[in-house]
Design goal:
It is a single chain. A hairpin with a 2-residue loop joins β8 and β9. With 373 residues, this protein is α/β, with parallel strands linked by helices. Helices cover 40% and strands 16% of the residues. It is built from 13 helices and 15 strands. The protein starts with a strand and ends with a helix.
Length: 373
Amino acid sequence: FYVNNFFFKNYKYKIKDNLNFLLYESARSAILHTLNILNVKSKDQVIVSSFTCDAVTKAVINSGAKIVYVDINKDLTMNDKCVLEAINRNTKVLILQNTFGRLGLKISTINKIKKKKIIIIEDSCLSVGSRFKNNLLGKHGDVSIFSLEASKAVTIGWGGALKINNKKYKKKIISSYNELSSINVLSDLRRLFQLFISLYFLKYPFFFGNIFWYFFYGTRIFRKSSNKGKLNPKKIGRFSKKFFLFLFPKFIKFFKKTNNNYIFLINLIKKEKLKCPIVQKKNEFIVTPRIPLLIKNKDRILQLARNMKIEIGDWFVECPPKYKLDKSIIHSYKTGRWVSRRIINIPSYFTLEKKEILNLKKLISQISLIENN
């Protein structure tokens, strides 16, 4: 299907038209499929942030290309100088990672890279809906991808999306995409059922909930996220696609609510004098499912959150990811390693309810007591 005026007020859906927005089983399979279409060879190099998810690593490694990891800045953006230094005659692709709502490189650096005819895949898995100078993130790469999995700003439980920005690759990508098989109906329905049950247990927790949860996993009605999609990219299932189309017109509201949660929580964080590497600037509109914090007493705070029954994460503790690191090139990672040892993140999803916001407020206050004493 075709989506026009991406993330704007006027939505037009045209079935069997020229595609510019494609749905995959996962975001990593979208990256892998793109690299395969671009005929990436074993001698080709792909520049990747050292502070990243190993899903990106696995997609690139399985394409046959060699990863070149580069360092980040303290605001989690890719280090412009390191990126430019890492470029050589074998550099074919840059994965531009927009982390927690911020554009991953300066516009001037992006333009320099484009002049070198290096393909840019823009990764907005943690930033979809964000804007910089009133331009949506996801418009700066030749193609852009984002995730629809449960931990992201918008979700249908599973899946990834790819948007083609460079007309040069449009026909080739669409032609190859049309040849992909789709997830079978049974798997598709099971995944949607898993999403519904997961959300239900989160909203209405009860004493025997864990027993039902383990029953679903033990009988394999539910399945954990696997790496299968990275080896064999597939299109999303028909029912998941319909669910996505149903939710799509609501995305603007989701983004606004997520940004409101972010602004409220970031003001609390600033008031408590905690260190957040990404604070929204005047020319930004931050949409992120998580707000990162840099802390000293990580173990104590993770335990505190568990005691308060608040789910917080510490993405990405491996910097760079360890998966087949011996097959990669490490250009630089000093700042990324420093950040990875100190980072935690708290939720800012649009689905947060008033009670959850109040609990996060208490958590932020308790973190401040630990960190500032």
